[in-house]
């Protein structure tokens, strides 16, 4: 009789989650989608926009601070930056998620924490280019959501966005 060798004991795989999403616990209301998050703002702040950002994040259960990149807080979970200039210093620290204000807006809109799922949710690798600073870019054929993302990307590279086509438009981006 052929006997099969005993099966090796299988150990359950342990998966560690690097980032904790508090809304995964169904007992947290969707309005508090940033509960347990501590944000650090890495850009040169526009005071009016910064006050709105601080109020918005705190309203949704998170904490935020404007910081110096060299003194990155241990309790920080997310670092907000629009350009990738701060990313090398942030990556030296462990367990820090890099995001943009666009990601924050989308999380608030969905009322649940999700990893970045759009290009504009991550800091731009593009550096403001003086050769495009005088260029006017228009778009056509995109949905409102797509147009919003394109507008942000156009502004991040330093160009000017125009919602309509005119004789001053240098570049036209079309969907089809």
Automatic annotation (TrEMBL):
> Which stretches make up the BRCT domain?
29-113
Any idea what this protein is called? BRCT domain-containing protein
InterPro entries per UniProt: BRCT_dom, BRCT_dom_sf
Q: Which residue windows are transmembrane per the record?
A: none
PROSITE patterns listed in its UniProt record: BRCT (PS50172)
Pfam families the record matches: BRCT, PTCB-BRCT
């Amino acid at each position: 009789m052929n006997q099969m060798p005993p099966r090796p004991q299988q150990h359950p795989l342990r998966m560690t989650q690097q980032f904790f999403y508090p809304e995964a616990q169904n007992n947290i209301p969707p309005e508090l989608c940033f509960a347990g998050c501590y944000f650090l703002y890495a850009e040169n702040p526009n005071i009016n926009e910064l006050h709105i950002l601080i109020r918005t994040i705190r309203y949704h259960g998170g904490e935020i601070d404007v910081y110096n990149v060299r003194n990155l807080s241990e309790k920080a979970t997310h670092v907000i930056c629009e350009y990738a200039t701060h990313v090398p210093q942030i990556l030296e620290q462990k367990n820090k998620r890099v995001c943009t204000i666009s990601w924050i807006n989308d999380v608030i809109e969905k009322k649940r924490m999700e990893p970045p799922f759009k290009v504009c949710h991550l800091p731009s690798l593009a550096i403001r280019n003086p050769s495009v600073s005088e260029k006017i870019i228009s778009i056509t054929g995109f949905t409102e959501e797509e147009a919003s993302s394109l507008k942000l990307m156009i502004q991040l590279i330093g160009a000017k966005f125009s919602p309509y086509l005119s004789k001053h438009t240098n570049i036209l981006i079309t969907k089809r």
